[in-house]
Amino acid sequence: MKTEAIIIMVCAQGIVTAITAYFFYKVLTTKPKQEPDSYSENDDETQRQDN
Amino acid sequence: MAAKAESWGSRVGLILAMAGNAVGLGNFLRFPVQAVQNGGGAFIIPYLVCFVVMGIPLLFIEWSTGRFGGRFGNHSTPYILDTMAKGRIWKYIGVFGIFTNIAVASYYCYIESWTMSYVYHSVSGTFNGMNQADVAGFFDTYTTIAKSTTGIPFEAVVFYIICLLLNTYILSKGLGGIEKVAKIGMPLLILFGIVLAVKGLSLGTDGASALFPNANAWDGLNFLWTPQFDSLWNPKVWLAAAGQIFFTLSVGMGTVHCYAAYIKSKDDIALNAVSAGFMNEFVEVVLGSSIVIPIAAGYLGLDWVLQNAGFGMAFQTMPYLFQQWGDVLAIFAGIFWFGLLFFAGITSSLAMGTPWIGFMRDEFGWKNKKGAWSFGLIALIMGLPTVIFFKEGVFDEYDYWAGTVSLVVFAFLETILFAWIFGIKRGWEEINLGADIKVPVIFKYIILVVTPGLLGWVLIASVPDMVNKATDEDTNNKEWFADAYYAESYGSTAEFGVVDSVTPNFVKIAFDNERKVFNKAQSSLTTVKYTDFKTYSFKGDQHTVVKKGDVVKPKDKIAEGKFTNNVMYKTLGRLLLITLFIFICVVVYRAYLKRVKEGRATS
C-alpha cells in the first residue's frame, strides 16, 4: 500500500475507534442517576434508591 | 386511556439498540461504494465534517426531542412534535415519522429476507462450484417470483413472510425484545465484521488468478484511502458525503425520537447520542471499508470493482469470492457475511416498528401485541408489491420516495422546528439536561445555522431528481399499456447504438461507453472507451422490429406487441405510498378527536 493511503486509513480508522472507545468507556464508568431512572434492570439496587 | 409505558432495561442496551437502529446494510455496502465514487481517501474529509456539523447535531436534536415528547407521554413523532410548537400542522408533519418507518420496513424486510436465505444457501452449499456468472444468475432467479432455488414454491415470498413474522414476534415482546436482539446482534455483528475485515486487510495478492492476474486487495485499499484532494472542491462530493451521513445514522425517520422517548428527563441523552453515533461510525469507517472493496479487488481486480461497485455486490459477488477460500471456509464466511448483514438489518427493521406501536399505545391504549401484529399486517400489505414486482421497479420506487425523499424532508422540518420554533435556547437546555458530558457550545450555533442550511441544500439539490422521477423522465416507455416498445437511453454519452444480434424475442444493441480504470503507475483514474451492450428480452406475443446493423436511438421503436410498462407498477407503488400516508393522517386525526373529547388536546 502507498504511504499516504496508509496514513489516511490509519488516522481515520484510529480516530474513529479511539473516540468510540472513549465514549463507550465513559458510558460504562459514569455513575448512574438515583432511582427512579430510565432503566429497569437496576431498579432493585438498594444503594441507588432516593429514600 | 393509554397503556402503561415501557422502559429500557439498561443504558448499554439502549445504546446498542440505538446503534443497531443506525447500523444497517448501507454501512457495509453504501459507504465504501460512495467513497470509491467520490474521491477515495479524500471522501473521508467531507464525510467526517458532515458527521460533525450535520450528523451529531441531528442526533442531539432527535434524542432531545424524543425525550421531551416522552415527558408528556408521547412516544412517536406526531404528538412529540405537537408538544413542541403551537399549530395543528406539526402533528401531521410528524406523520412522516410513522409513514417512513412502515414504508421502509415493508421493503427493507425483503432485503433482510435475502440475507436469511443466503445464510441457508451458504450452509447448504448451494454456491459450491458456481462461477461468478452462476452466483449472479442465482440472485436473478431468486428474485424472480415464479422461479425457485430450493423447490419451495414462491420461495422469495416465503422467506419474506418468515422474516416479517420474526420481526413482528420480537416487536410484540416490547422494548425488552428489541434490547435482547441488540445485545446479541451488535456484538456478533462486530465480531463477524472483524473476522472478515482481517481477511480483507491481509488478502493482498493471494486472490490473483489466471483470469484476474493483477487482482490485489491492497489496490482496493489504496484506491479507497489515497486522498484525491482536488475532489474536495467538487460540491457533488460534499453532497454525497452529507447524504451518506444522513442515511447511515438513520436520522429523519422518527425511530431515534421513539427510542429516546422512554428516557426520563434527569437522564443523559448527550453522551448516549454520541456513543451510539460513533459506534455506527466505527462499524462504517473501520469495518465497512475493510470488507467488500478489498476482498472484491483481491479476487477480481480494482478495475472490476470500479465498474461494478454497488449494492448488488453483496449478493451477486461475495458468495463467489467466498468459494475461493475452499468449501468449509466458504460456509463460515457466508454465515459471517450474511449473518452480519442480517443483524445489521433486523436491528434497524425492529426500530421501524416502534413508532407505530408507540403511537397506537399512547392514543388508543393498544397493547404491544396488537400494535406489533397490526404493524406486521400493514407492512405485509405494503411490502408484497415490492416482492412480487421487484423487477418492475416497485422496490426502487419505495426506496426513493419513502427511504430517501421523506427522510430529508422530515429532517429539514424537524431541524427548523427545533432550532427556530421551539427555540435554540430551550433546545440547548434540553440537550444539556442531565448530560454526562459537556457539549461544546459551538454545536448551539451549528444547530441554529449550519445543520438546517446543509439539510436545505441537500433538499434543494434533490428537487430536479424528484421532478424527473415524478414525471417518469427516466424512461421512454411512459404509457401503462402500449402496442410498441421504445429503446431506452443508453445511460452514457452515446446518442445511438447498433443492433448487434436480434431474434424475434431478443435484441442486443452495441453502443459506445466509457469506464474508469486505475492507472497504477500514476495512482490516478483514467477514462477508457469501450463497446458496451444493452439487451432487451420480450415475451411470446411481442416481437422485435429491428434488423442486425440497424442504428437505434433512444425513443426508436424496437418491438411491437402488447406491453404493460413498468411505469404502471411504479405509479401504483407511488399511489400505495400516498394511500399509506393519508391512512396515517386519518389515524392521527382520529387520535386528535379522541384527545379533544377527553380534554387532552393542546392544539
Automatic annotation (TrEMBL), chain B:
Localization, UniProt: Membrane
Keyword check for NAD: no
Membrane topology: Multi-pass membrane protein
TM regions (residue ranges): 12-29, 41-61, 89-108, 152-172, 184-203, 237-262, 282-302, 328-351, 372-390, 402-422, 442-460, 572-593
Lineage top rank: taxon: Bacteria
Cellular component aspect of the GO annotation: membrane
One Pfam assignment: SNF
Main location, first listed in the record: membrane
InterPro entries: Na/ntran_symport (IPR000175), SNS_sf (IPR037272)
Keywords assigned: Membrane, Transmembrane, Transmembrane helix, Transport
PANTHER family: TRANSPORTER
Name of protein: Transporter
Organism: Flavobacterium beibuense
